[in-house]
Specification:
Layout: E1 3-14, E2 19-21, H1 22-28, H2 33-40, E3 44-46, H3 54-68, E4 78-82, H4 93-101, E5 107-111, H5 117-131, E6 136-144, H6 154-157, E7 162-174, E8 182-190, E9 198-200, E10 213-215, H7 217-239, E11 248-251, H8 256-265, H9 277-280, H10 287-297, E12 306-313, E13 317-324
Parallel strand pairs: 4-5, 4-6, 11-12
Antiparallel strand pairs: 1-7, 2-3, 6-7, 8-13, 9-10, 12-13
Helix pairs in contact: 3-4, 7-8
The structure holds acetyl coenzyme *A (ACO).
Length: 325
C-alpha cells in the first residue's frame, strides 16, 4: 500500500572557525588533554565568535543543505529548529532563520529537547510531511553552548562546543515497506524526574537570567547507555530490522565511551559507527546533523543506506530514528 514518506534530499552543516583545544582549556581550568581524551574522546571543539549567534550558524547550515538538495529557499514550507541556546527568549530562532533565508510562507518554530532535539525535530517534521500539511521541511540542529557554560567549572566546560547541521526532507510516495527511502521509524521518550541531573540554572520565568549548564556526569552516563539501548531495540522491534541491517550508526556525540558502550551492547559493527566527538565536542542538538554531514562529506552514506540515529539529553529526553537514505 502506498505511503507518504519524508525523504532526505539535502544535507549541510556549519562550524565556527575558532578552535579551542584541550591544551588551551588546561590553561583556564585544572584539567589536562590526557584526562579529557581518556574520559570523553574530545580533543577540540569550535567556539562561536562575536555575532555568531545560533541563528547565524543555523542559517549557514540551512543554506548548505538547500544547495545540496538542488533547491532554493522558497521550496521550503516548514522549518523545525532544535536548540537549547536560542538567540532570544522569543521569537523563535527558527523564524530568524526563515527571515534570513528570505522565506515568506509556511511555518517555522523551535523545538527544545536539549541533546535529543534533532531526533525530536526530525520526528516532528516527519509527522507534518506524512500528514500532508507541508511538502518540504528544513530540520535544523543548532547550538552555541559556549554561551551557557560556566568556564570555571572543569566538570562541564571541557565537554561542549558550537555548531549547526541541517537536513532537507521532502514528502514523496513510497510503497509502505522498509525498503522505502525516507524516515522509517522514530521513537521518542522523556522522564522529567531527572531535571537536576542535567539542567541550566537560569531561565526567564524561574530566575530572569540565562544561567549556566549544570550536570551530574556520572548519573547521566549511567542512564544514557540503558535508555539508548532500549530505544534502539524498540526501533528494531517496530521495523523488524536489526543491527546487521544498519549501514551507518550516527549517535549523539556526547562522549566516545557512551557511543562505544551503546554500539557494543547492540552488537553494531564498530566500522559502522560515526564518531566526530573528538573534533566537535558535544554540540547538543547540532551533534547528529554535524556527524551526518561529516559522514556524508566523506562519501560514507549512499542512497538506499539504512542510517540509525539516537540521542539522549537533559530532561531526560531520548529517542531513536531509522532513515533509509
Ligand atoms: N579534568 C580533570 N579532572 C576532572 C575534570 C576535568 N575536566 N572533570 C572532573 N574531574 C575530576 C573530578 O573532580 C573527579 O575528581 P575526584 O575523584 O578527586 O572527585 C574525577 O575527575 C572523576 O570525576 P567523575 O565525574 O567521576 O568522572 P567520570 O569518569 O564520570 O567522567 C564525565 C566525567 C566525562 C562527565 C562522564 O561522567 C560523562 O561523560 N558523563 C556523561 C555526560 C554527558 O554525556 N552529558 C551530555 C548529555 S547530553 C545533554 O543533554 C547536554
Amino acid at each position: 500500500m502506498s505511503m507518504r514518506r519524508s525523504v532526505v534530499v539535502g544535507c549541510g552543516h556549519f562550524l565556527p572557525e575558532t578552535i579551542l583545544t584541550n591544551a588551551e582549556l588546561a590553561k583556564r581550568v585544572d584539567t589536562s588533554d590526557e584526562w579529557i581524551v581518556e574520559r570523553t574522546g574530545i580533543r577540540e571543539r569550535r567556539i562561536a565568535g562575536e555575532g555568531e549567534t545560533t541563528s547565524v550558524l543555523a542559517t549557514k547550515a540551512a543554506q548548505a543543505a538547500i544547495a545540496d538538495a538542488g533547491l532554493v529557499p522558497d521550496d521550503i514550507d516548514l522549518i523545525v529548529l532544535a536548540t537549547a541556546t536560542p538567540d532570544y527568549t522569543f521569537p523563535s530562532t527558527a523564524t530568524q532563520v526563515q527571515a534570513a533565508l528570505g522565506i515568506r510562507h509556511g511555518a517555522a518554530f523551535d523545538l527544545q529537547a536539549v541533546c535529543s532535539g534533532f531526533v525530536y525535530a526530525l520526528a516532528t517534521a516527519d509527522n507534518f510531511l506524512r500528514a500532508g500539511s507541508h511538502k518540504r521541511a528544513l530540520v535544523i540542529g543548532a547550538e552555541t553552548f559556549s554561551r551557557i557554560l560556566d568556564w570555571t567549572d572543569r566538570t562541564t566546560c571541557v565537554l561542549f562546543g558550537d555548531g549547526a547541521g541541517a537536513l532537507v526532507l521532502e514528502a514523496r510516495e513510497g510503497e509502505g515497506t522498509i525498503a522505502d527511502r525516507g524516515v522509517l521509524s522514530s521513537h521518542l521518550r522523556s522522564d522529567g524526574r531527572h531535571f537536576d541531573k542535567l539542567y541550566v540554572d537560569g531561565g526567564p520565568s524561574a530566575t530572569m537570567t540565562t544561567g549556566h549548564l549544570r550536570m551530574e556526569g556520572k548519573e547521566v552516563f549511567r542512564h544514557a547507555v540503558t535508555n539508548l539501548a532500549d530505544i534502539i531495540e524498540e526501533a528494531f522491534r517496530a521495523t523488524g530490522l536489526n543491527a546487521d541491517d544498519i549501514d551507518l550508526f550516527v549517535p549523539h556525540q556526547a562522549n566516545r565511551r557512551i557511543i562505544e558502550a551503546t554500539a557494543r551492547k547492540l552488537n553494531i559493527d564498530p566500522g559502522k559507527v560515526v564518531v566526530t566527538v573528538e573534533k566537535h565536542g558535544n554540540t547538543s542538538a547540532a551533534s547528529i546533523p554535524l556527524a551526518i554531514a561529516s559522514a556524508y562529506g566523506e562519501g560514507r552514506i549512499k542512497q538506499g543506506d539504512l542510517v540509525l540515529l539516537e540521542a539522549m539529553g537533559g530532561g531526560f529526553t531520548w529517542g531513536s530514528a531509522l532513515i533509509r537514505w
